[in-house]
Design brief:
The chain has 8 helices and 2 strands, in the order H-H-E-E-H-H-H-H-H-H. It has 205 residues and is mainly alpha-helical. It folds into 2 domains: 91 residues, no CATH class; 60 residues, no CATH class. It has a two-stranded antiparallel sheet. Helix 2 crosses helix 5, helix 5 crosses helix 7 and helix 6 crosses helix 7.
Length: 205
């Protein structure tokens, strides 16, 4: 694979990960159809924080959803006010969900496709995250590499002395090595896979 194709593959992986922010927002309504429906079957009497018509918001599910909010929103702080506001957001969402289900929107193909895309993107994201952590844990940046990068980037014969510049160089080199290793890993997986491309269909008008 050429450099251009390798860049495309890396961009694809990056888009999958960053695209999760958009998918997560889209899924706020759609995932609840599945998540809440399943959790509703195991709720214990009295162990819920709110009830919306016939649906009870289970305390464990409430804590799970709040933990996810903490993960995605760095500004979110757990206070009594924040808990109440977050619960109100769940109630609002549940009301919308129930109304949407009345209109059978959860059976539409568009909804099903959204769930499939989220599931696939989540698997890929988790896989790349696991592999990235494994790669990063084994990356070693030598002093020679740091100095060479510094000379090529900034030129001159001066020795690197600024610790902030040094940190940025190390981070850059680590990211480059990680990206290269990820691409090599992908190419290895692709080589081991059975792939057939029907170009006649691909380029058909």
């Amino acid at each position: 694979m050429g450099k251009k194709d390798a860049c495309k593959q890396l961009l694809f992986i990056k888009e999958v990960i960053t695209g999760m922010k958009y998918v997560f927002i889209v899924l706020l309504l759609s995932s609840s159809f599945l998540f809440y429906s399943c959790s509703n079957e195991r709720q214990e009497v009295g162990n819920f924080v709110a009830e919306v018509n016939d649906y009870k918001i289970d305390f464990e599910d409430f804590k799970y959803q709040m933990a996810r909010e903490l993960e995605y929103n760095d500004d979110f702080k757990v206070t009594h006010t924040a808990k109440k506001e977050f619960l109100e957001s769940l109630i609002r969402k549940e009301i919308f969900i129930q109304e949407a289900k009345k209109l059978d929107l959860d059976t539409r193909e568009k909804f099903i496709k959204a769930i499939e895309r989220y599931w696939e993107a989540t698997l890929i994201r988790d896989l790349v995250d696991i592999k990235s952590k494994d790669i990063v844990s084994k990356i070693v940046i030598s002093e020679e590499e740091i100095e060479m990068y510094y000379q090529n980037k900034y030129g001159g014969d001066n020795t690197l002395s600024d610790p902030h510049v040094r940190e940025r160089i190390i981070a850059r080199l680590r990211e480059e090595k990680k990206s290269s290793e990820l691409e090599t890993w992908y190419e290895d997986l692709r080589e081991k896979s059975r792939i057939i491309i029907n170009e006649e269909v691909l380029y058909k008008n």
